[in-house]
Give the backbone structure.
Amino acid sequence: MKISILPSIEKTALITSILALVALNYGFKAEMSEQEWLNWSNKCLNSSFNPAPGINLKKWEITLTNDYFLRVRKTYQQGKQEYFSFNLHRLTNVDYLASDTTGILKFNTQTDDIIVQTYEDPNGNIDSMATTFDLPVHNMSATKFDSLKNALHYFRTKGL
């Protein structure tokens, strides 16, 4: 029985070709600047955000800042606001739970590093800290998630 194995050079070329196709599909270049990574990450997060049906959001903002903070603000029709913020240097893991069409990005930090605040809440305003933050998303393919995870890792390690 003869087993054919691609030579090492051919394997490397094949892997490089596949990665290049993935990069082209998501607008990556071989050498992206920090600003390009930031722009792509913000576009990815904003186009993927998927508030739950029945939630009456007036507006929402998701921003990955140039000082490595992820900030999410949701404003409801009744005026209540929810605000979440954390520095990516404190990020320990990000997971995607669900399918290619809908799911949750689950951000985990080292300790209670996520700022959680509510304003204009009829039940009282909250000012607390958390270790996890869930962001509902849609159209998050495995490739797109891996690219986002790589971008977040890039920012997490900047300046350490």
